[in-house]
């Protein structure tokens, strides 16, 4: 991995590590916050190859849970006060799915 790739990976890991309980964001949100808009798939690759990050706080832009891990994903989110219905996040205390999210704060997906 090049120096740029290592730096990008670290920036993405830092954003994910900073997510607090009940904060649910999309892969695109993480990429944008890390300074890499449009790199949502890179976020997925970083999560797949990392240990110890709160992966369950990251979903796709529509709130869909990780395929094949839906039950565990749901249980972890519900324990943090997140509402999950039909395999999707419907409401979270913080982040993309929060009821009090301010208009205009949408980020790239």
Short description:
With 109 residues, the protein is of the alpha/beta class. The chain has helices spanning 3-17, 27-33, 40-48, 70-78; strands spanning 23-26, 58-59, 83-85, 88-91, 94-95.
What can you tell me about this protein's structure?
The protein has helices at 3-17, 27-33, 40-48, 70-78; strands at residues 23-26, 58-59, 83-85, 88-91, 94-95. With 109 residues, it is of the alpha/beta class. It is globular. The two termini are 25 Å apart. It is built from four helices and five strands, in the order H-E-H-H-E-H-E-E-E. The longest helix is centred in the N-terminal third of the chain and has 15 residues, at 3-17. The strands form two sheets. A three-stranded parallel sheet has the order 2-1-5. A two-stranded antiparallel sheet has the order 3-4. A hairpin with a 2-residue loop joins strand 3 (83-85) and strand 4.
